[in-house]
Amino acid sequence: MARLPIEQRIAQLEARAKALKARMAQQDRAKDTRRKILLGALVLHRLEQSGDGEFSKRLGDWLRRELPGFLTREEDRALFADLLGTKAESPAPMMTMAETTKSES
C-alpha cells in the first residue's frame, strides 16, 4: 500500500478533527437543552405541587416580574400566558377574497 503524501495526510487529519469538533458541539448543545428542560420542569413542578405555598408565591411573583423582559417572541409569551396572567392572543382571522374586495371599495 502506497503511503499518502504528508499534505494529504494533514488534510485528512484536519477533516477528522473538524468532524469531531462538530460532534462535540452537538453533544454540548444537547446537554444544554437537557439542562434547560430539567430546570424548567423543576420550576413548573414547584409552582404546581409545592407544599410550601410561600415559596411558590415568591417564585411565581419572580417569574411574572422577570419573564416578560426575557421572552422576546410572541409565540414564547403565549406559552407562558397562564403563568404571566395574560390572555393568549389568538391570531386575527384572515379575510376572504370577497371581504378584501369589499374593504378596498
What layout of secondary structure does this protein have?
Elements: H1 6-49, H2 53-70, H3 74-79, H4 81-84, H5 97-104
Describe the fold and architecture.
This protein has two domains: about 5-50; about 50-85, no CATH class. The protein is mainly alpha-helical and about 100 residues long. Helix 1 (about 5-50) crosses helix 2. The chain is built from five helices and no strands. It starts with 5 loop residues before the first helix and ends with a helix. The radius of gyration is 26 Å and the shape is elongated.
What is the number of domains?
2
Return the average pLDDT rounded to an integer: 83
Tell me the total number of β-strands: 0
Helix/strand/pairing category: mainly alpha
Q: Uncertain runs with pLDDT below 50, 5 residues or more?
A: 90-97
Distance between the termini: 81 Å
Rg from C-alpha positions? Answer: 26 Å
Q: How do the SSEs run, as a string of H and E?
A: HHHHH
- Quick one: overall form? elongated
Main beta sheet strand tally, sense and closure: none
Strand content: under 5%
The number of helical runs is 5
Secondary structure: helix percent: over 70%
Give keywords.
single chain, 105 residues, mainly alpha, 5 helices, 76% helix, elongated
In a nutshell, what does this entry contain?
The chain has 105 residues and is an all-alpha fold.
